[in-house]
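User: Could you write out the 3D structure of this protein bound to zinc ion? I've included everything you need below.
Assistant: Certainly. Input first, then the structure.
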Amino acid sequence: MTKEIFRLLFIAALLTIILPCMADALTIKTTQRIVILDPGHGGKDTGITSATGILEKQIVLKLAQMTAELLNDRYHTLLSRTTDTSLSATDRTAFANRNKADLFLSLHLHTQKNRSFFFYFGTPDPTPVNNSTEWKTQGLVHQHKSKQAAALFAKIFQNLYEETSHQSGPAPVIPLEGLQMPAILTEPFAISDIPGTAIEQQNFLTPYAQLLARCIETYFENKF
Ligand SMILES: [Zn+2]
């Protein structure tokens, strides 16, 4: 009997040490912001192709990986895809919603020289919101914050790349449908800007990755 009491006392003592440590670990995990970087396209869906054969799907994956590396020590950064696989828009949305992301950033490219775009979710017609499915209008719940984020990103880009026109605005883009957190789709540069060799591409993408990381940090610092 005494042996049993000693054993219970020992377990109780052990728990008083372990439980507060576990609580601390949980606190650290839950207070870290969750960022989803979503490299567009993948697999059979190559996205746009440059005149020299460079594929959008490869560049946006590389850019997402480089941006994530810069954020990883301060944020819980997740990529919707880490390899050359095809994902549907709903796969990407479900991934972000399941992980309870604080910010979703979809990465794409465009074909217009000296321009960059930052879109937040907007319906093509402002009136039919009540008639649409809940899924389609989900992006509107966080539209205000998304709009502020898009404007902030465009402003930060404008400060560094003055010769380029950086625009933010609403777009009924499918990758932003159904998301339960502030979300942006960016096209930071034209595919024709990308140089040919791997090392040149790395050098070209580095300042963009740094700038996107800075935009994300500033977004969280602003606490909209
Ligand atoms: Zn694209």
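The chain has six helices and six strands.
User: Perfect, thank you.
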